[in-house]
TrEMBL record:
One of its GO terms (biological process) is vacuolar acidification. It is found in: Membrane. GO terms for cellular component: proton-transporting V-type ATPase, V0 domain; vacuolar proton-transporting V-type ATPase complex. It is a multi-pass membrane protein. The chain crosses the membrane at residues 162-191, 203-226, 259-279, 300-328, 364-382, 388-412. Keywords: Ion transport, Membrane, Transmembrane, Transmembrane helix, Transport. Belongs to the V-ATPase 116 kDa subunit family. This is V-type ATP synthase subunit I. Coiled coil: none annotated. It comes from bioreactor metagenome. One of its GO terms (molecular function) is proton-transporting ATPase activity, rotational mechanism.
């Protein structure tokens, strides 16, 4: 019988037959379908009962939250205990403490019968030293931006205060609308006060508060208020546009004078790139490499400074001095003279990289223009029927869509400028986060108070 079965399979395979794996199913399709229906009904009943059981615990919801947070803390403590070297009478703990907290730790340890020793990390330990960013209330929201990229190395610099002004300004510049900025700021403040988000969400809404203020301020100077909503509403009502100074006479307008805005964006880009190079020079000088700072940063600055001098005076001597400095110094790591010269000449190719970096800042103008034009288009679509009710519906839907789209796009492009154009000039990444054993709760807010004796 088995031999006949195998022979039949061989014949069927010639005609493209593939045997299905029914995974233990037997019987007819009808019988199995009926069996599945019974199982589905049983699962539905089980689900309904589970939901009912959970709902019955609703009065104890706050107690359950408290228990969950408490259990999480106990689990964390027990996890740490497993990492200790211990005996019946003593234990050995090896760990890290932030330098500003060292005195507080030693004062605490003095209350116990124990011995301790502290030392600064050695150079070879730098890759393993955990990182704790020095954040205050203003720079703390930037933790999200930094952590999304990578924490700085121990011998790097804290990037939060260095990217805060640029990030907030760039976001506001691209988002530039007084109405959008006010809504974003107010909404973020309400969420922070009522929901009290923690962790990444807390950073996010803190950041949205800052960039919302920036967008409102820059929108005031560019004359943006939900696109051209005021002029559109006045047109529907058959009245002249109100003579509001910031609307009728903006400081600059991306729609009316895009070239000026583009040049401004390029200038902003140059400022950020030069700032990044200055930070790199500081890091080199701090580490005792002043000559490297002169050769790797100063040479480029001489070259950059020579460009406007040459354009204005026709004298390109400063540019050639910068070129000579680069050619003579950028290949210095090579052991041979030929290698040094080749490396120096090859470094001039980085001119195109800097040029490309500056061009990247044109996205500031593009995003500002896109948001303004799309907002005005929705206003135009709403005004076509000539009815305020219809206009209001299209206005709300259109601007909610435009605002949401702009928030995402602006955040992405602002982050990109920090990560690629700015961080590439000085940032040393690769740090791992400092995760101390502490009360880290999800539902319960812990208020720490000092007891004065």
């Amino acid at each position: 019988m088995i031999r006949s079965f195998n022979a039949v399979l061989e014949v069927l395979k010639k005609y493209g037959f593939t045997r299905a794996n029914l995974r233990g199913w037997t019987g007819t399709a009808y019988d199995n379908a009926a069996k599945l229906d019974v199982e589905l009904k049983a699962l539905d009943n089980e689900l309904a009962q589970t939901i009912a059981d959970i709902a019955a615990q609703a009065p104890a919801r706050e107690t359950l939250k408290l228990c969950l947070d408490r259990l999480e803390q106990e689990i964390s403590r027990e996890d740490v205990k497993t990492r200790l070297l211990s005996t019946q009478a003593a234990f050995f703990l090896d760990g890290w403490v932030p330098a500003p907290d060292l005195n507080q730790l030693e004062a605490l340890l003095a209350n116990f019968v124990c011995a301790w020793e502290t030392e600064d990390p050695k150079t070879e330990e730098y890759p393993t030293v955990p990182i704790k960013l020095k954040s205050n209330a203003l720079t703390r929201p930037m933790n999200m931006v930094t952590e999304m990229y990578s924490l700085p190395a121990y011998d790097g610099v804290d990037p939060n205060p260095l990217i805060l002004p640029f990030f907030v300004f760039f976001f506001g510049f691209m988002f530039a609308d007084l109405g959008y900025g006010i809504i974003l700021t107010v909404f973020s403040i309400i969420v922070r006060r009522r929901a009290k988000p923690k962790g990444t969400m807390g950073y996010l809404f803190g950041l949205m508060t800052l960039v919302g203020i920036s967008a409102a301020v820059i929108g005031f100077f560019t004359g943006g208020f939900f696109g051209d909503a005021i002029a559109t509403v006045a047109g529907i009502l058959g009245k002249p546009t109100p003579n509001v100074s910031f609307l009728t006479n903006p400081v600059f307008s991306v729609v009316d004078d895009p070239l000026t805005v583009l040049i401004l964006c390029m200038g902003i880009g140059v400022v950020q790139i030069i700032t990044g190079m200055a930070i790199k020079a500081y890091m080199l000088i701090r580490d005792g490499q002043a000559l490297d700072a002169l050769f790797d940063v100063g040479s480029w600055w001489v070259l950059f400074a020579g460009v406007p001098v040459g354009v204005l005076t026709g004298n390109w001597t400063v540019v050639w001095v910068g070129v000579a400095m680069l050619v003579l110094t950028q290949g210095r790591s090579s052991p041979s003279i030929v290698g040094k010269l080749v490396g120096g000449v090859a470094s001039l190719y980085n001119i195109t990289a800097y040029f490309g970096d500056v061009l990247s800042y044109s996205r500031l103008m593009v995003m500002m223009l896109a948001g303004s034009v799309i907002g005005s288009i929705f206003n135009l679509l709403g005004a076509m029927p000539g009815n305020l009710v219809v206009f209001a519906v299209i206005f709300v839907i259109g601007h909610v869509f435009n605002m949401g789209l702009n928030i995402i796009g602006t955040y992405v492009h602002t982050s990109r400028l920090q990560y690629l154009e700015y961080f590439s000039k000085f940032y040393k990444e690769g740090g791992r986060p400092f995760r101390p054993l502490e009360l880290n709760t999800k539902y319960v807010d812990i208020v720490k108070e000092e007891v004065k004796s």
